[in-house]
Amino acid sequence: MRYDLASYIYEPINALLEKPMGIRKARGELIGKAHGKVIELGVGTGLNLPLYREDVEVIGIDVSEGMLRKARKKKSPARVKLLKADARSLPFPDGSFDTAVSTFFLCVVPEKERVLREIRRVLKPNGILLAMECSPPRNPVFRAFLNGLSALTSKITGTDFRVDIGELLRRSGFEVIEKKGLVNGAVRILVAKPSAEP
Questions:
Q1: Cβ(83)–Cβ(59) below 8 Å
Q2: Among 27, 29, 89, 160, which one is least packed by beta carbons within 10 Å?
Q3: pLDDT for position 191
């Protein structure tokens, strides 16, 4: 229900914040790395859909019908299918996807380890995970501020800057092969692949 309500304010807030912070440009660069058959977790209102190349096939999932209604209005060069589904129990066979995409999803979703196990399961052994997530910033004052803010936002929207997604990926059977920080490290861009050993 909270995600249905958030669907009305999600894009206006993003429009205010993303461009001046460099997130919009970085989002485009990250989505440009998607290839083959793609699963986008927490597709939301479909902000990424116009950014995919025409040679990919995207299956976007979300638990919120409100978010999906808005996403269905987006145009995309890619072939897109949108489904209501829970990332904790993905309705796809093992090794179904070449690319998994998560933009500000892993830092929000509950049961993150369970979700990552599912992502790893549905990725091909040579697949990649493209992630842009909230992260603990480097600056200690900024980090303390966001830690306090996260105590509130984690209960309202799920957003939590206190979780190191890169470390969580490593613990969940992924190898981080690229990483970049934005907004003094409060946003982290990660490219990961399934480790040889789970």
A1: yes
A2: 89
A3: 97
